[in-house]
């Protein structure tokens, strides 16, 4: 059967921040961490949806009520990322789950002018991790888990056109943003190799969430939206199953730095297992170039060795 949520070790006395915890994989991850005793910060862009998610978590786990907190975070707005980090009262963060993301959206820009998929999926999480790094390193066993995708294989990053200003394809841009997630994990692990922090990545395979239908819905492409919803019903695994690789990377003993965990069966579904990744996501040179560009674009300097 393989690893399941029942195998999550005790998380008592640990604080976890989960981005995009209002639904889908993020909600499941937050709930299961809370079930095992963690204090969980649900970092959500929309206050109403975040409040509903916290209320649902407390209904399902009444004992977790005092340990589940909602805080607003818009990864597409660096002012919001900075405010979130500044206002988070914790002196120590044990686990950061960089889960929130957008997929295959029509071209758009974040509040800071970045291409939306690159800005939300990578730059927002790069900035958040950097701003919380001192508190992560205050933990005896910190982890940063960034959710990528098997679809990172669609495209390598173009360091000369990170914001897709020369040309834009929604799926290419998505692949680039997910490649950026893996390069970020690779470079974070390299730079913090002499610390206790484990930087790891995960992906859900094909899991039924709202992610797939968001793009068609934004454009009013109702037929495409119906196809995506039908695929979720007939082909995808549940959000509960899709969250398992993230939970494994976040909690299982023996998870290695720069590891990439996904579903066992063809990277599509099943219990967590090591996942293949494109060779370009293991390039030190590309990781360093993306890191330097990300620091310049976000204004967040990590202060760790190069």
SSE layout:
Layout: E1 15-19, H1 24-35, E2 39-44, H2 47-60, E3 68-72, H3 78-87, E4 95-98, H4 116-137, E5 143-147, H5 170-191, E6 198-202, H6 211-219, H7 222-234, H8 239-242, H9 244-251, E7 260-265, E8 269-274, H10 284-298
Parallel strand pairs: 1-2, 1-4, 2-3, 4-5, 5-6, 6-7
Antiparallel strand pairs: 7-8
Helix pairs in contact: 3-4, 4-5, 4-10, 5-10, 6-7
Structural commentary:
It contains ten helices and eight strands. With 306 residues, it is an alpha/beta fold. Helix 2 (47-60) links the parallel strand 2 (39-44) and strand 3 (68-72). The protein has an eight-stranded mixed beta sheet with strand order 3-2-1-4-5-6-7-8, with helices on both faces. The chain starts with 14 loop residues before the first strand and ends in an 8-residue tail after the last helix.
Q: Which secondary-structure class do the elements indicate?
A: alpha/beta
Helix content: 40-55%
Counted by DSSP, the helix tally is 10
Between the first and last Cα atoms, what is the distance in angstroms?
Answer: 42 Å
- Assembly type of the chains comes to single chain
List the uncertain runs. Answer: 212-218, 223-234
Strand content: 5-15%
Succession of helices and strands: EHEHEHEHEHEHHHHEEH
Strand segment tally: 8
Determine the mean pLDDT: 91
What is the molecular shape? globular
Largest sheet: 8 strands, mixed
Adjacency order of strands in the biggest sheet: 3-2-1-4-5-6-7-8
- Radius of gyration equals 18 Å
